[in-house]
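Quick one: structure for this chain?
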Amino acid sequence: MKSLLGEMILSAVSAAHAAGELPSADFGDVLIESPKMESHGDFSTNMALQMAKTQRMPPRKVADILIRHLVDEAGIIARTEIAGPGFINFFLHASAWLPVLDDIHTQDDQYGRCDLGKSMPIQIEFVSSNPTGPLHVGHGRGAAVGDCTAKLLEFCGYDVQKEYYINDSGRQIQTLGQSVYLRGRELVGKTVNFPDDCYQGDYIRDLAADLLEREGAALFEQEESTSLMTCARYAAGKIIDGMRVDLEDFGVVFDCWFSEQSLYDTGKVEADIRYFEKKGLIYDDQGAKWFRTSAFGDEKDRVVVRKNGQTTYFASDITYHKDKFERGFKKIIDVWGADHHGYIPRMKAAVEASGYGQDQFEVLLVQLVNLLRDGQPVAMSTRKGEFVTLADVVKEVGRDAARFIFLTRHYDSPLDFDLELAKRKTNDNPVYYVQYVHARISSLHRKAQEAGHGAFDNLTAAELAGLLTDGDIALVKALSRYPEVIKTAGSLMEPHRITYYLMSLAAAFHTYYNHNRVLCENDPDLTRTRLYLVTAVQKVVRNGLALLGVSAPDIM
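Got it. Here's what it folds into:
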């Protein structure tokens, strides 16, 4: 509808200019909005205000000229008005909205799809938790955001690949190996002083017990330096396997699991250090090697090789992101925890130094999850291993509730996740509130079939004319917003917009259902048209839930 109005306005501008009523050919972009107040019409534009300066006349006069040259061949406009300093408000005929229903039924699960991305290859990397312990509830939010953003971008026409970066190199892996080794020594009867900076969770003891059964006591009776790598590699591998299962149970499947260690094994990190040294972007200072990130907007230069010759995480991150672009991606998106905010400038600097635009790299920062139970905080500690895992949450509340609630707020805002609320089958539970719409309409289908009502698809314009009450049109208007919501959510990479929309659509449906009988025993024609309407609602709810990775049940 907006695009049609936009075309009509541009035609009016061209006609007015050709007639000499608008002196300038500088028209600018057409911006059409849906007013917040119904009294301001179905749509509004500030085109006249934008044009006033170049046309050298008052905005209201420009608006009057545009309205006089407006040609409504489709017959959708009931009336127009000039409001305030020069806004043009459009009021549409109720019948103008009805083709939206045909679009939904015809396009079905493709309704709302757009070509915003034009098949651009794009990669989104998310979760990427160190393989030193199970995924916790915070990782779950990052997983939901990353996976939904990927689905959304694909639906908007991008060629999307999802990647998990396995941080299987460096100090944290050594610490993991040491933790398992020391717990293993305890299991074979050795006296152990277990450092506070080792991983404390019970899962470490379980890993040590598994390794003891597999390798025997000799592994834990020899020197740590001999056993460390075996312990580290085994533990990391088992933890990664567990992460993969937990994520699949959460509905997240990655296209690629990329190993940090592979960048060292193939010599890419070392080769890139030499490459940037030749370009003068890595230099020696006081025994360390520094990257000139300050030349690309970072607040200071950063160390890539320490005085002891060990590379920093930044060194492998430079190579990793450079490798992403070399694989053919035109844009890369990282989903990080909010505590990594300060790391963004140096990575943007590294991307630019590698020959790519900083705008080709984007980071979504995901804020913390406050886990509650009936409104009371659930105590968690990370290093002690006392935390609620993602697997625990999915097991208790289910995949659908977990994913939906993780996406009920913008990822850059803290989120309260109440475990008890997520399990309730009431309208207070947002996922239940939305899913119930789909289930209720499925129930209407079953009852209609039992009552012998005929098919309700492919309705004629005359039959659709039965859907012209204010309640009917309000629901159709809500459905018409879905494609714009998807396009906006995709362009901004804000999946919570889908969740907001679905809750709003659910509220509109519940209001409609409470005031209008869908199955009218003595009026089969009205039954068919209202089934046509509510089935369109059902399809849009199903489509939106699919983008969130949430099911659309027929029975609840």
